[in-house]
Specification:
Blueprint: E1 2-6, E2 12-16, H1 19-32, H2 36-112, H3 120-130
Antiparallel strand pairs: 1-2
Amino acid sequence: MELLLKAGKLKKKKFKLNKHTEKLMKEISASYNIPEEKVVSLALQEYREEKKVNEEMEKLRKEIDDLLQEMFTLEGKWASIRYRSHTYVKENRSLAIILAGYLGENKSLRNLMKKKGAHKDIEKVVDYYLWL
């Protein structure tokens, strides 16, 4: 059996089918009560749709790979920023400890001189950095 398929408006292509394929086409057309040419066109249409879905899947896979690569890059940058902020917190805590020592010394000197006055605002800052 020979099939004549149109590949466009001007192009036509002849195909020879083997006996097994011809038999299969006749069985399908008989069971669904459709012409044999329609069986071929439906099969080709399904093939084209599968091919289109596969192309879309490949595009999505590529996009996912690109997004993963960008995520790993951002995660590396975030790790360095997080480490830097951790060192700043430790430095601030050590400076708050030193400042607390100076406040205690200042308080004891004020008591010796019998002067009143407290540094409540500085004590709040020290408490904030000591209890981070």
